[in-house]
Design the sequence.
């Protein structure tokens, strides 16, 4: 080796030694900046199929007075069917605390609830009908967060709170081999878990003394080491470490105790008007109070009664509107999350322009959501939705309204990643949009 | 003389053809056909886990309505290890559960029966020795503790 070659090799080795620590598992050369806009994101899926005609365009009056500005009275033919709700918990409509995209779009794929939810949490359209028994094939926002956020966080910091079971438990992680349950969110369907049936199954556990727990730890450790598989390798879902699991057990125990004490019977003073959506948001609020998660996704779907009863659909739009406002009010009164949280609200898809043949007691015809998948022909109204981004004035433009067509469902995942400062750590091969190409970024200062 | 020879030969023939057959008795050594732990490759489904746990503790099959109830609650939480732990602890605390009041003087028999009940196999010598030692040294260990340990172990999730 001559002197020149020696010097060249030595200098290349030196460069490599400095550079290699920054080549991350994600394939990026340098670590993410970690510059966050805020430290918490709550994504409220105002789901079940909400048509812009009734929400943003207020064809039957302002059915969402907690979120939207406007005093238009509810159509007289259905006004009498609206349940009484408590006064708004907010000093002014929520849109004044952020930016409203009036013409957001669910641009591609079948306009089904599970498809819409999957697109919302994966940031990628699915052009086929999904297998309802499978986890999404593309990684979810929860997995991006838990894998790429620095420092990595436990599942206690990311939650998926669903108002029903069916396929929705599968949305807390994907089947992507590079992500999966190790990076998934804690999932809860609280109205199924904190229920009389739930209490029967979980409400009266044998509690062991600390001495017994010591013996249990030793014996179980022994028997597990005598077996060549772990349940975690299989279908155990998201697994919390012992300390976190203890907190979750206590949360469940406390929830049953509160429910038995009657504290959850009428928590918002809404009486019989309290529907499943409102309860689901209420339980999401309990999670916020207890765990202050950095990422929480919660949904509502009671408006889907619109398939059979238009007037009940309108009524449930109002209840979801109240729940959304209550959620923001709770966030703003929770130390650690107040003024440090961005709330994103969007339906998963809309509903058809043309009604079906079902007529309710008020003479209104019901609405399905069946936009043809070519996204061009036929009734495409179900692709028209809204999106609202609410947050601290230093982060989110206040009282800003975008009336033109701007933004789409696949903007939400990259925007959440950007808000929490890990968007640039996500591999470019992931298939999600870059933050820079998202119209939703117009909401931010 | 010739007749005598013929009679002798016939007698000889009859004697050999009527020879009594030997009785051969084929015996097989007893073989344990139960699985060893390492041969359990299939994870129990939710329904299997719940119904097996229930029948292991109550010696009756779970009713269809109860199974539906358990399934719903099981599905409503994402951390399955956590929720199974809670289900088992709840079953152990349910009136009518069949748990021995004490381990008794025959520790070996208790351990063998527990392994057969929950793991569908007998403990190997080392497992038996370890558990006997634990029970002998730690008076806090009772049947509920042993049942809980076995039912929340990894092996109980497989068949």
Sequence:
């Amino acid at each position: 080796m001559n002197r020149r070659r020696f010097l060249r090799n030595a200098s290349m080795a030196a460069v490599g030694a400095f550079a290699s620590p920054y080549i991350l598992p994600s394939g990026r050369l340098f670590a993410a900046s970690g510059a966050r806009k805020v430290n918490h994101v709550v994504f409220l899926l105002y789901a079940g199929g909400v048509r812009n005609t009734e929400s943003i365009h207020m064809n039957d009056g302002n059915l969402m007075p907690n979120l939207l500005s406007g005093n238009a009275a509810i159509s007289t033919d259905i006004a009498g069917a609206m349940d009484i709700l408590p006064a708004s918990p907010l000093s002014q409509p929520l849109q004044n605390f952020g930016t409203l995209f009036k013409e957001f779009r669910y641009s591609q794929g079948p306009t089904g609830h599970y498809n819409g939810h999957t697109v919302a949490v994966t940031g990628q359209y699915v052009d086929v009908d999904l297998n309802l028994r499978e986890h999404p094939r593309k990684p979810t926002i929860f997995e991006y967060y838990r894998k790429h956020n620095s420092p990595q966080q436990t599942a206690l910091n990311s939650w998926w709170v669903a108002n029903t079971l069916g396929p929705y438990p599968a949305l807390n992680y994907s089947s992507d081999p590079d992500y999966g349950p190790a990076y998934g969110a804690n999932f809860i369907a609280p109205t199924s878990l904190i229920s009389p049936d739930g209490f029967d199954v979980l409400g009266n556990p044998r509690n062991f003394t600390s001495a017994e727990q010591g013996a249990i730890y030793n014996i179980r450790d022994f028997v597990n080491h005598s077996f060549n598989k772990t349940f975690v390798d299989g279908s155990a879902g998201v697994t919390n470490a012992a300390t976190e699991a203890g907190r979750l057990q206590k949360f469940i125990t406390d929830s049953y105790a509160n429910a038995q004490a009657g504290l959850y019977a009428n928590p918002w003073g809404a009486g019989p008007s309290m529907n499943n959506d409102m309860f689901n948001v209420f339980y999401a609020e309990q999670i916020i109070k207890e765990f202050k998660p950095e990422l929480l996704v919660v949904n509502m779907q009671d408006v889907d009664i619109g398939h059979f009863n238009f007037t009940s659909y309108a009524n449930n739009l109002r209840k979801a509107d109240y729940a959304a406002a209550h959620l923001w009010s709770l966030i703003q009164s929770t130390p650690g999350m107040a003024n440090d949280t961005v709330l994103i609200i969007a339906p998963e898809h809309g509903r058809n322009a043309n009604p079906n043949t079902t007529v309710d007691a008020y003479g209104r015809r019901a609405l399905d959501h069946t936009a043809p998948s070519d996204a061009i022909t036929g009734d495409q109204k179900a692709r028209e939705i809204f999106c609202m981004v609410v947050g601290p004035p230093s982060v989110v433009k206040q009282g800003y309204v975008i009336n033109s067509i701007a933004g789409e469902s696949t903007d939400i995942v990259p925007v959440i990643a950007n808000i929490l400062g890990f968007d640039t750590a996500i591999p470019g091969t992931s298939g999600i949009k870059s933050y820079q190409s998202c119209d939703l970024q117009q909401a931010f200062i | 003389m010739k007749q005598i020879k013929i009679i002798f030969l016939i007698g000889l023939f009859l004697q050999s053809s009527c020879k009594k057959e030997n009785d051969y008795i084929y015996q097989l050594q007893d073989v344990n056909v139960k699985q060893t732990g390492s041969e359990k490759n299939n994870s129990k489904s939710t329904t299997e886990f719940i119904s097996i746990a229930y029948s292991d503790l109550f010696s009756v099959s779970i009713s269809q309505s109860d199974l539906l109830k358990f399934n719903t609650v099981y599905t409503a939480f994402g951390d399955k290890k956590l929720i199974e732990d809670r289900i088992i602890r709840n079953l152990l605390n349910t009136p009518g559960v069949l748990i021995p009041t004490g381990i008794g003087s025959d520790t070996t028999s208790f351990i063998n029966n527990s392994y057969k009940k929950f793991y569908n196999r007998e403990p190997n010598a080392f497992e038996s020795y370890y558990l006997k030692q634990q029970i002998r040294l730690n008076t806090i260990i009772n049947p509920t503790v042993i049942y809980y340990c076995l039912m929340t172990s990894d092996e109980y999730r497989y068949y």
